[in-house]
């Protein structure tokens, strides 16, 4: 049967399927399944593996979906596969034909698809949204989201909210203008557009809706708002309680912050958006006047907790800038924030309203103040621009009340250079070299208590962690490592309870579901993403990791 809005709203509770990226609209990535638990997980073994093939494919960042006996998996080079979940047999495969000039900043990647009615919907690297028939793989509609020649691309999983397919866009490193869009999921017809740089007009049903989201030059300088970035490149989550879409925005363009004095709204922010009109209901900017490419796209996850007998409607996010934020999701007010990585240099802490207290020496220098005007003062910054945490999603366990955060401890030398905007060219005005800060590890999976800021346990990993996390009612937490291991942990103590080598680095997000009374787990293996491209000496450390491209599916032996 076709996937309905109700099915998607219930996704986190229905254990027989996985219908959405995030395993439910809130994106908690928590499964109520407990067949698999800390006692029996050791016996879990692969039941099938499926090769994604293709020499052009690299970082397999996708999260699979499961519906009606079929698994839908996107491959990094704008491919999608329908697989029989029982056998691993291929049912159909679709390969988008990509033009030569695509400009993804951070590897050829795709994080997943969305399901609605009898359609499976995904975006391609040249910024086209494609809807296919779930049964046949035939294209039902195709829509252009942005001009790839101007640097627009697409890497995220689309999201379904109230019959609409909600998408962001990539391209912050090319001076595009970020936006959130809603289309009728059945036809692909555009319903609204909400640009994420202050000053740009929104559209509703083909007409300017009069909402500019602020004045053009209030938080920007000169014409820079016209090419201001703030790409919504990770997509979002949806909170049915407040009927709000939460969408993060990326770095202001260019990276060189001296060229654009001001807060540069709505870059490096979390936005709460009305799904019916595209109006921004509230915003919370984690890094005003971002000068480090910290972005602000990381997932904002709705959760409730009790405080003094009252239920707090909160939402949490682990930002690239190294701080973990707990917000009031009704209005965006700051509740608390704390560092989740060590040695942050660019800020000494957060003010009562959650804005950062900048350090004097944390921001790279202005090139116009250097002797020849060519290169500003270099500073060492922690975290690096790849972040205390990047796109790889954390999980929230309703049982333990903890967030499981795939974090990284690293820094960078960063400096600024002069730059001017040219359509379709990189627009950074910065250079950088990433460096590790600890001898023995970069990656760090942390169990974080959102009420106290305490790290309850930590697992240290040699290479940077770049895969998503899954938590289950079986007291288990799963993630993958670049070294190739699918790892299972005791959710309460952090004890390693499972380890399986998948043959290539894992940068995908694991899922779990149940079929014929048995609990299954699937994850993609296939090394890639931003680390091997931009990781400097850190990338050298991981240079021997072989590429791959396999969907692995596991379960317990039949008892
Ligand atoms: O500003 C942007 O538009 C943009 C897009 C993307 C992307 O679409 O993957 C990344 C980034 N920025 C980015 O800053 C970043 O660190 C990054 C890492 C990755 C990845 O998949 O490994 N993508 C991106
Ligand atoms: Ca970016």
From TrEMBL:
Note on how the cofactor is bound: Binds 1 Ca(2+) ion per subunit. Binds 1 PQQ group per subunit.
Disulfide bonds listed in the record: 105-106
Cofactor annotation: Ca(2+); pyrroloquinoline quinone
Region (Disordered): 355-375
Name the record gives this protein: Dehydrogenase
Alphabetized NCBIfam families for the sequence: PQQ_enz_alc_DH
Keywords: Calcium, Disulfide bond, Metal-binding, Oxidoreductase, Periplasm, PQQ, Signal
Taxonomic superkingdom: Bacteria
Pfam family of the protein (one): PQQ
Keyword hit for Chaperone: no
UniProt cross-references to InterPro entries, sorted A to Z: ADHI, PQQ_b-propeller_rpt, PQQ_MeOH/EtOH_DH, PQQ_rpt_dom, Quinoprotein_ADH-like_sf, Quinoprotein_DH_CS
Protein family according to the UniProt entry: Belongs to the bacterial PQQ dehydrogenase family.
Active site: 293 (proton acceptor)
Organism: Alteromonas confluentis
GO cellular component, one term: outer membrane-bounded periplasmic space
Keyword DNA-binding: no
Location in or out of the cell: Periplasm
């Amino acid at each position: 049967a076709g996937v309905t809005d109700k099915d998607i709203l219930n996704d986190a509770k229905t254990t027989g399927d996985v219908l959405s990226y995030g395993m439910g609209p809130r994106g908690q990535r928590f499964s109520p399944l407990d067949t698999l638990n800390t006692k029996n997980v050791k016996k879990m073994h692969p039941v099938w593996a499926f090769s994604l093939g293709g020499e052009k494919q690299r970082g397999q960042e996708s999260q699979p979906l499961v519906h009606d006996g079929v698994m839908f998996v996107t491959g990094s080079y704008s491919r999608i596969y329908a697989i029989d979940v029982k056998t691993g047999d291929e049912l159909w495969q679709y390969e988008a034909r990509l033009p030569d000039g695509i400009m993804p900043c951070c590897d050829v990647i795709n994080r997943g698809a969305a399901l609605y009615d009898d359609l499976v919907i995904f975006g391609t690297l040249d910024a086209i949204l494609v809807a296919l028939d779930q049964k046949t793989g035939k294209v039902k509609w195709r829509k252009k989201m942005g001009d790839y020649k101007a640097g627009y691309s697409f890497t995220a999983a689309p999201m379904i909210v109230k019959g609409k397919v909600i998408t962001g866009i990539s391209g912050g490193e090319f001076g595009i203008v970020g936006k959130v869009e809603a289309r009728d999921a059945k036809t692909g017809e555009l319903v609204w557009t909400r640009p994420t740089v202050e000053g740009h007009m929104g559209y509703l049903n083909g007409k300017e809706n009069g909402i500019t989201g602020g004045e053009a030059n209030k938080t920007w300088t000169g014409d820079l708002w016209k090419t201001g970035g703030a790409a919504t490149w990770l997509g979002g989550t949806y909170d049915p309680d407040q009927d709000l879409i939460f969408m993060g925005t990326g770095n202001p363009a260019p990276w060189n912050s001296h060229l654009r004095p001001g807060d540069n709204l709505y870059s490096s922010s979390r936005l709460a958006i009305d799904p019916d009109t595209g109006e921004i209901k509230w915003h919370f900017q984690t890094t005003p006047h971002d000068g480090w490419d910290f972005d602000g796209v990381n997932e904002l996850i709705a959760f409730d907790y009790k405080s003094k007998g009252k239920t707090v409607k909160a939402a949490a996010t682990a930002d690239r800038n190294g701080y973990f934020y707990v917000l009031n999701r009704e209005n965006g007010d700051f509740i608390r924030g704390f560092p989740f990585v060590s040695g942050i240099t660019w800020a000494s802490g957060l003010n009562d309203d959650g804005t950062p207290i900048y350090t004097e020496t944390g921001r790279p220098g202005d090139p116009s103040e250097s002797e020849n005007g060519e290169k500003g003062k270099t500073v060492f910054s922690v975290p690096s621009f790849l972040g205390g945490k990047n796109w790889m999603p954390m999980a929230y366990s309703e049982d333990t009340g903890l967030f499981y955060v795939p974090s990284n401890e690293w820094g960078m030398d960063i400096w600024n250079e002069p730059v001017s905007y040219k359509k379709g060219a990189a627009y950074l005005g910065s250079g950088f070299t990433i460096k590790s800060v600890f001898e023995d590890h970069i990656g760090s999976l942390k169990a974080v208590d959102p009420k106290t800021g305490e790290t309850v346990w930590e697992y240290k990993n040699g290479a940077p962690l770049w895969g998503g996390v899954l938590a289950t009612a079986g007291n288990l937490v799963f993630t993958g490592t670049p070294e190739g291991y699918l790892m299972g942990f005791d959710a309460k103590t952090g004890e390693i309870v499972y380890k399986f080598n998948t043959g290539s680095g894992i940068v995908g997000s694991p899922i779990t579901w149940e079929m014929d009374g048995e609990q299954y787990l699937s994850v993609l293996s296939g090394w890639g993403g931003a680390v091997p491209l931009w990781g400097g000496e850190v990338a050298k450390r991981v240079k021997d990791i072989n590429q791959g491209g396999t969907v692995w599916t596991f379960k317990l032996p039949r008892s």
